[in-house]
UniProtKB/TrEMBL annotation:
This is Phosphoribosylglycinamide formyltransferase. Residues 3-182 form the Formyl transferase N-terminal domain. It comes from Actimicrobium antarcticum. The keyword Transferase applies. Gene3D superfamilies: Formyl transferase, N-terminal domain. SUPFAM superfamilies: Formyltransferase. The gene is purN. (6R)-10-formyltetrahydrofolate binds at residues 65, 90-93, 107.
Length: 204
């Protein structure tokens, strides 16, 4: 049984769909913990009510990024993780932390990477006038929002869109591709070849 640790900072809707799919579809894994960088993250209540262990490593309690990441790593490793899932985890991670979880840490980003890394991706998309936008699941590397891409989903950008309407349309797609990507990892179907992700066929 593989252990997944999910990191959140807020609402945690991606965490919720992953936990629900894992249970409904009887994935060969357990959600070993949900860890938040904020004590007031809404997603913590969902996890606790679904008997998922929770922990808070509050970034505001640590004077430096190094100190925060060291405490976070100690907490995560207490759950013996096979996979770390960043689900709306709004912290930039140090290279040392990222290297520790190399090839076993996934992130979802609300744009079609490599377009629009960083924050306010929906605003960036509207300002650029793109007609397609979307979401990307990728392995985390030391370069922010640039790791090998596992899955993407695209949505149209409408002339009538606001940041919020676009965010909602993208989020619906996030909720489809993130559980799918996590399951591929759990099933051992993902590999990296020359920095690109390869998906092995489903075994029958
Ligand atoms: C999601 O849209 C996710 O893609 C984004 O934060 C939101 C979290 O929602 N992540 C980032 O922007 C990471 N840079 P959720 O807490 O409901 O899953």
């Amino acid at each position: 049984m593989r252990n997944i640790v999910i990191l959140i900072s807020g609402r945690g809707s991606n965490m919720q769909v992953i936990a629900q799919r894992a249970q409904q579809q009887k994935w060969a894994c357990r959600i070993a913990a949900v860890i938040s960088s904020r004590a007031d993250a809404e997603g913590l209540a969902f996890a606790a009510s679904h008997q998922i262990p929770t922990a808070v490593v509050a970034s505001k309690d640590y004077p430096t990024r190094d100190a925060f990441d060291a405490a976070l790593q100690t907490t995560i490793d207490g759950f013996s993780p096979d996979l770390i899932v960043l689900a709306g985890f709004m912290r930039i991670l140090t290279a040392r932390f990222v290297d520790h979880y190399r090839d076993r840490m996934l992130n979802i980003h609300p744009s079609l990477l490599p377009s629009f890394p960083g924050l306010s991706t929906h605003r960036q998309a509207l300002a650029a006038g793109v007609k397609l936008h979307g979401a990307t699941v990728h392995f985390v590397t030391t370069e922010l929002d640039h790791g090998p891409i596992v899955a993407q989903a695209a949505v149209p950008v409408l002339d009538s869109d606001t940041e919020q309407s676009l965010a909602e349309r993208v989020l619906q797609q996030e909720h489809l591709i993130y559980p799918l990507a996590v399951r591929w990892f759990i099933d051992g179907r993902l590999s990296l070849l020359d920095g690109l992700v390869r998906l092995a066929p489903e075994s029958s």
